[in-house]
Amino acid sequence: MKRTTLTRLFSAYCLMCLFLGAAAAQTVTGSLVGHVEDVNGGVIPGARVVVTDVDRGTRREAVTNEEGNFSINSIDPGIYRIEIEQTSFKKSIRERVEVAINTTVRADVQLEPGGVTETVEISGETALLKTDRADVSQQITREQVEELPLSVDRNYQSILDITPGVTEAQTVGSSFGNPNGSLTNRINGQNERYNNFQLDGTINNQTNVISQSNIVPSPEAIQVVDVSTNSYDAESGRAAGGVVNVQIKSGTNDFHSSTYIFNTNSALSSRNTLATLDEPPTNLTQFGFTFGGPIRRDKTFFFGDYQGGRDRRGQSTILSVPTEAFRNGDFRGFGTIFDPGPTGTIAAASRQPFANNIIPTNRISPVARAILTRVPLPNLPGATNNYEAAGTFIQDRDQFDVKINHIFGDNTNGFVRYSFFKANTSDVPAFGELGGPSTGGVATAAIGPSRNQSGTINLTHTFSPSLVTEGRLGFVRVLIAGASPTEADLATQLGIPGINQGDFFTGGLPAISIGGFNLGNTPFLGIATTVPFKIAETSYNIVNNWTKTMGNHTFRFGGDIRNLILNKFQAAGSNPRGNFTFSSGLTSRTTGTSANSFAAFLLGLPQTVNRTTVTQLGGYRLRQYFFFAQDRWQVNPKLTLNYGLRYEIYPYSTPANPGDQSRYDPATNQVLIAGFSPVDERLGVKTDFTNFAPRLGLAYRLDDKTVIRTGYGISYIPLSVNTLATQNFGGQTDVTFTGNAAQLPPRDARGNVITISTGIPSATGVDTTSGIVTPPGNATLGVVNPNQKRGYVQSYNFTLERDIYGFVSSVGYVGSRGTRLPGTLNINAAPPGSLQNERPLARLFGRTSDTFVSDFMLSNSYHSMQARVDRRFRGYGRITAAYTFSKSLDYTDAFSLDDDLSTDNNRGPSSFDRRHNLVVSHVVRLPFGRGGKLFDSNGLRWQGLLGGFTLSGVFTTRSGTPVDIFNVNLITDPAGRSNRPLGAEDRPNVTGTPRILGGLGPGQLFFDTSVFSDPLPGQTGNVGRNSLRGPSFFNYNATLARTFSLTEQFRLQFQATAFNVTNTPHFRNPSGDFTSSAFGESRTTFGERSIRFGLKLSF
């Protein structure tokens, strides 16, 4: 089998070497096609077609075939002059035809009788009607990127949603893992990890977090953003969502430059609608310059840009801290606190209440008392949500791009680009050295540097008018790090033994989770599991494509080798300092509250403890292979047929060092360690050689103003290098200790009760060099299907597009269906009411910890009606409108399932699903003053006062996203069996259909909470996933710009941008946590009005 696999890979590699082609890379060139006929409709063969780049002087030629058609492929983006001539006809000249990346521009011509010395000039803007492609795509132009109101940090990704089917941009990861502020969008119902980001046609996705872009160029450096969302050509791949290709500007025969500065300051921002305290000050400044022009006229050109960012962002979050009474063990008025005994071993049914509901001073854990001396007291009223933590997020960014274009001759040209980004980030935790969430309310609080690099080399050679080749080499390099501002021996100082061991990972306090005091899934105290970390990744791809024109057929074919390297110095699984989880079960009989959870902390009695012991860090290597062939067939002047086939090979990752990855075999209760004989580097996971992806598209012109398009395609799921690679068992061993019943404390391997004063036992060292080992029963393990078949998405569309008096309007059905999508399933989960020793694998092998299978096992579906209107006003700007009516269903937001016991219970509306989504954008030059229709000739005074204004904006209105109802209050029976499943999500019961009440703000119910209830012990709740809808969204961002012409060449522009012009409160979804005091209430808002000023000098 191994010999067969190697033979197949070698054969594929040899085939690659024969025609290295761009299969996964998005093209960086465009095409010009046309049909030449006489005034009577007769075809004109043999006509000479010459296209000239007006900015750089390059020329390409073609000759019309027997049917009067011509096709000029792989031409660089730019503004072109098209000359067509034939004996006995007047010469036709069409000026300023724009060709962008990944576009096919049609330029049909009727030649008039006459001599070639006579000319007929045709002027006008390039038609927006897409006549020869069946994909669903959109170009976001340089003017839109520079003039529309981008996000506060001026990220071009914030306006990708002006494209139908694209959701609003969301941040991804922490500020340390994502220092350049990369945003993500869900495209046509697919996971954000399925998008393919390209920069100048080569790789721009990161390897560790595949949904992040490595380089986010400054708006001033971008020439165009090409967004393909459905039924793209066979040339495009490694994407089941969308393909986003950003082209960096190039130099021309004229020098151009700009210098700019933008500032956003909280002094001009509106107050948060629900804020009770003053907001901390915020100041964000971005500044930079661009410069481009000729090094040698008509031969060599350059473009460069620099942008700096200085972010001082005041931030605050509302947390819960214990009151003075709670710290002293006084829980009067907060539910009954039952005494579990000094070690928590008294059975629940036999427990007696503490006298007066007060825990005696001598029973309070010295560790708990020492920790609480460093936790601040409330600064707001109440027992919960009573502390506002404030701080300043600090980040300094610097980035630049350099691009050189060179014309080697009439038939050869190319470019080289290098991009660089670095940042230093500081986001300290809310409780200082004790950790906790950041003051911005996110899980990861740390300090650290980062550096991203990217490069592209591109070469295009024309062998003849009918044969062209393009070759590219791209690379990505990422270095990021994060550390915690805490004392290395803090846990030891506070009395928790065995935590701080003097190594890279174990400094600081372990995570301390207390029910009712955590911020979502972020523990109350402690440093995040992922901190500290150092991540280094290198990716490169070698791509090349060939284009051959034969008659009415344009063939493209090629392949791509992509190499991905990831070295990840970061703990996986549990916290390397450990995690103490305190819940209500230890101080209750049958039900409990947050007071019971904090009482358990005071007693030092956790419900669960876990810890990752790191002895070897993981590194992964991955190589991917892509091939494609396609044909664009001009069947007749009205009908264009695009068809092709992709072939993709995704071998499983290999370890950087023996032992860097492993997989558990649940059939034998053994762990296979990669790289140690008899286990191979890929853990026996077979490569799937059946990933064929057909693509088919049709475009039919009913007339010159109407086009019908339809398309179908299959795309395979791209995954990050370590998505389905399990932890390196033995190198990173994750162990969990849990009481056998919901109200009993955990015990170590010797049967001793574990408390906060005893610390957390480290995992027992395991010798992995034998390649196959038997794991301890409380180790969390991962299973990978060795016979996995890669998942895929089918996408399809039917679209009608028409030019109605210059308004290019389209409406169509766009859909997709995902099959065998990646997911993880806990095969050691057990139904509610089960004890730890009743888990499925506990009965077989004594395994009491979670065991996750990673495989291609899920599905999704997306159906939509998408409509778009685009109107360009010559000299006055552009207006676009995008409307999407859609329904998206899936099983999970990422990979893990909420309910491991019944897969079908996870199916529901996607968390990003919105039924209605309307986005209108405009860039309008107001028609006043010189050159305008109004006040153009009323004297210099009026021209100066009223001229030069541009109003741009983005109006958005959306229906609400789903609200998920989860969590239950602990209820146990006398035997200690509860209503919470082991290792699975718990949900309440619902009676009838909850009414939407529409209340917004604290104390106001958005939906009826009275219909929800706790299931009884042994029961599973019946609430479905994402069963309700949150509030809708309305927003308008606008920029008013005034341009002053200082001289004939120099212009000065002043910008004022208002985000949320109307200052409409944007309420977040109401809480779906059934156990929270905020259940059913929308207590927070975001996006209050803020103002940004900018100044730009250009020539």
General description of the model:
With 1099 residues, the protein is mainly beta. Among the domains are: 20-128, Carboxypeptidase-like, regulatory domain (Immunoglobulin-like); 330-363 and 578-616 and 731-779, no CATH class; 949-973 and 990-1099, no CATH class. Helices cover 6% and strands 43% of the residues. It has a 22-stranded antiparallel barrel. A hairpin with a 5-residue loop joins strand 2 and strand 3. The longest helix has 18 residues, at 2-19. It is globular, with a radius of gyration of 31 Å.
What descriptors fit this protein?
6% helix, globular, disordered N terminus, five-stranded mixed beta sheet, 1099 residues, mainly beta, 22-stranded antiparallel β-barrel, 8 helices, Immunoglobulin-like
Average of per-residue pLDDT values: 88
Percent of residues in β-strands? 35-45%
CA distance, first residue to last residue: 64 Å
Total DSSP E strands: 56
Report the helical percentage. Answer: under 10%
Largest sheet: 22 strands, antiparallel, barrel
Please tally the helical runs, counting DSSP H or I stretches of 4 or more residues: 8
Q: Low-confidence parts, pLDDT < 50 over ≥5 residues?
A: 1-25
Shape: globular
- From the alpha carbons, calculate the radius of gyration and give it in angstroms: 31 Å
Structural class: mainly beta
Summarize the structure.
The chain is mainly β and about 1100 residues long. The protein is about 5% helix and about 45% strand. The chain has a 22-stranded antiparallel beta barrel.
